[in-house]
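Chain A, query sequence.
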Amino acid sequence: MKLKIFLGFDIDHSFLNYKKELNEYGYEVSRIKLKEKIIMFNKINKEE
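Chain A, predicted structure.
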């Protein structure tokens, strides 16, 4: 899934600084391909 198509806007390298915060929202980054501008996310199960 191409991020720009999914989100509707571009992101810059500052995204890499915030990817650790995704865990709080139930997601993790599984793969980043900067040349192809692709970021793959996984939804993680939070057991409470």
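Helices lie at 3-7, 15-18. The longest helix spans residues 3-7.
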